[in-house]
Amino acid sequence: MQFSDALQRDITETVRFALAEDIGSGDITAQLIPAEHTATARIITRENAVICGVNWVNEVFQQIDNSITVTWHIADGDYVTANSVLFELSGPARALLTGERTALNFLQLLSGTATICKHYSDLVAHTDVRLLDTRKTIPGLRTAQKYAVTCGGCHNHRIGLYDAFLIKENHIAACGGIAAAILAARDIAPLKPVEVEVENLTELDIALEGNADIIMLDNFSLEDMREGVARTAGRAKLEASGNVSTQTLAAIAETGVDFISIGALTKHAQAIDLSMRFV
């Protein structure tokens, strides 16, 4: 996902909601500190990571108190080692403490997403395959996580239900077959990409005959994937899905498929351990 005005608007709204959720009627603990007291803080990572979330952190402190200065030592997509200083803050002590957890929540989750994506992308760097995310994201953080995916070297599938067709088993059954579903999709939105999920080589042939743009090979064996690539011969893009893990990923990529979709890129992300300390 490219950083855009639309993404920035999403960041503004997401941060506003997150701050309201945390602060509520006011940060009563921060009131223990004199209002005039200022401070400087450093944020470090406790583990190796690919960092993502700079704009979310900036927005948190901008909304809390725009007098706060945020000085970054890294950029989104940078790989850092444990105990690296990521950024420094200076400004009213109350405001720094009030924004700490919300800012780090965004940064730790998005960095965790970017880090796992980097791990997966490194495993297939010797191939031309593109690793795709899915819609298995944390509710309310769809665009944030999809941005993090790109910072880790992977790629976005469709953003939601509106920007491309993905015709799966239940859609096919309800439409009366693969060919009928493709025709209906072309009629509804002729300019939208049409992807169809197939479960065997016979269904692959039907999807090819129907001129699907992308065909998802669902839980195919490696042998059938290779056969599918040979049969397709470039007439459509092929996406492998199902039973994808770090142990199976390279072998799937080596079959020659164009894409591999992996729900784990977003739904299995483990937050990076971060810490803020006054100096």
From TrEMBL:
- Give the EC number(s) listed in the UniProt record: 2.4.2.19
Identify the residues that bind substrate: R101, T134, R135, K136, R158, K168, E197, D218, S241, G242, N243, I262, G263, A264
Q: Where is the Quinolinate phosphoribosyl transferase N-terminal domain?
A: 27-111
Where the record annotates domain Quinolinate phosphoribosyl transferase C-terminal, the positions are: 114-277
Q: From which domain of life does this come?
A: Bacteria
Q: Which Gene3D superfamilies match?
A: Aldolase class I, Quinolinate phosphoribosyl transferase, N-terminal domain
What's a Pfam family this protein contains?
Answer: QRPTase_N
The UniProt keyword set, sorted, is:
Glycosyltransferase, Pyridine nucleotide biosynthesis, Transferase
Q: Which reaction does it catalyse?
A: nicotinate beta-D-ribonucleotide + CO2 + diphosphate = quinolinate + 5-phospho-alpha-D-ribose 1-diphosphate + 2 H(+)
Q: Does the keyword Transferase apply?
A: yes
One GO molecular-function entry:
nicotinate-nucleotide diphosphorylase (carboxylating) activity
User: Which Gene Ontology terms of cellular component type are present?
Assistant: cytoplasm
The pathway where this protein functions is: Cofactor biosynthesis; NAD(+) biosynthesis; nicotinate D-ribonucleotide from quinolinate: step 1/1
Keyword Glycosyltransferase carried by entry? yes
GO BP term, example: quinolinate catabolic process
Report the protein's function: Involved in the catabolism of quinolinic acid (QA).
Protein family: Belongs to the NadC/ModD family.
Q: How does it assemble?
A: Hexamer formed by 3 homodimers.
Kindly provide the name given to this protein in its UniProt entry.
Answer: Probable nicotinate-nucleotide pyrophosphorylase [carboxylating]
Question: Which organism's genome codes for this protein?
Answer: Zhongshania marina
